[in-house]
Design brief:
With 77 residues, this protein is α+β, with helices and mostly antiparallel strands. It contains two helices and three strands. The protein has a three-stranded antiparallel sheet with strand order 1-2-3, covered by helices on one side. Helix 1 packs antiparallel against helix 2.
Length: 77
């Protein structure tokens, strides 16, 4: 097992959608490995994310009402 994947990250108490977007954009440009992406999401206050393949979107959230960032999943051609 990759030791970096077994690390735990402290999740920030405050949700920051700008930081979520920044972390996503950085990862989507292949500038971070997945373990670092998870750390970035924890620092942004994301507790979990929900993938909706039918609705073609991913929602990153703290789990509290009104604290979420939703991103469309692009259509692959």
């Amino acid at each position: 097992m990759n030791s970096s994947m077994s690390e735990t990250s402290e999740i920030a108490n405050h949700f920051n959608s700008d930081e979520v977007l920044r972390g996503l954009q950085h990862h989507q440009k292949h500038l971070t490995p997945y373990a670092d992406f998870l750390k970035d999401m924890a620092k942004a206050g994301v507790h979990y994310y929900i993938v909706d393949m039918v609705g073609r979107q991913v929602t990153y959230t703290s789990g509290r009402p009104e604290e979420a960032y939703t991103e469309a999943i692009p259509v692959f051609q």
